[in-house]
Amino acid sequence: TWHDVALWADDLFRADDASRAAVRALAAKIRREHPTRDTQLAAAIRFVQDDIRYLGIEMGRNSHEPHQPAATLAQRYGDCKDKAFLLSLLLRELGAEAYPALVNTKLRRRLDVFLPSPFLFDHVITQVVDRGKTYWIDATISDQGGTLATIETPNDERALVVRADTTALAKIDVRDRGSVRIARSYTARDFTSPVLLDVVARYSGHSADDMRAKLA
């Protein structure tokens, strides 16, 4: 059952004492630097996405078991499950409810027709439940903007949340808020002088994320 798979995964994502201490210290630093809870949560997401390099060395046990968050913080790199583990623990320390979530980036909603298995997943993201709303964060995306409430949702469609009471796949409601708005203004002094053309492009949602990545 999916509950069996969730129990298997939950046992792998258990933080040791060193990781809890390291994440507690990082959360305290974030609180000192950011005055409000919303900015603290956004800062935690930015840190794991941008300051922990996305790199996987997935051999032996670490093909399926994440490195401990203390090790990820020390080496400053990790694969998807390392980053999701670290982000979940950090957000929990800052007062949000957060869990790693297993997804399949290719099958997506077609997971519904498969028999439960731990071999069906190829990526790990993070589920965040805050103030009665559910959000999904992909910690491997860098240069992503927005706050917890506005950040673009991964389009993975289905997820197995890593917690002991999970019994079924969760549905990811993908909200596509990306857009590009272009405004052009012409300034003509008279009939013979050169005309000034101003073009302003405003990017939002995933379009803004894509442009930030290209500029970076």
Low-confidence regions: none
Quote the distance from N terminus to C terminus.
43 Å
The portion of residues assigned to helices is: 25-40%
Rounded radius of gyration (Å)? 20 Å
Principal-axis shape? globular
Question: Largest sheet, order of strands side by side?
Answer: 5-4-3-6-7
Order of helices and strands: HHHEHEHEEEEEEEH
Mean pLDDT: 94
Strand content range: 15-25%
Q: Could you say which structural class the secondary elements and strand pairing correspond to?
A: alpha+beta
Annotation field: number of helices: 6
Total strands: the figure is: 9
The major β-sheet equals:
5 strands, antiparallel
Structure description:
The chain is 35% helix and 22% strand. The chain is an alpha+beta fold and 216 residues long. Helix 2 (17-33) packs across helix 3 (37-51). The longest helix has 17 residues, at 17-33. It starts with a helix and ends with a helix. The model has no long low-confidence stretch (mean pLDDT 94).
In brief:
The chain is of the alpha+beta class and 216 residues long. It has helices spanning 2-12, 17-33, 37-51, 69-75, 80-93, 205-215; strands spanning 53-54, 77-78, 97-103, 123-130, 133-137, 158-161, 170-171, 179-187, 196-204.
Secondary structure topology:
Layout: H1 2-12, H2 17-33, H3 37-51, E1 53-54, H4 69-75, E2 77-78, H5 80-93, E3 97-103, E4 123-130, E5 133-137, E6 158-161, E7 170-171, E8 179-187, E9 196-204, H6 205-215
Parallel strand pairs: 1-2
Antiparallel strand pairs: 3-4, 3-6, 4-5, 6-7, 8-9
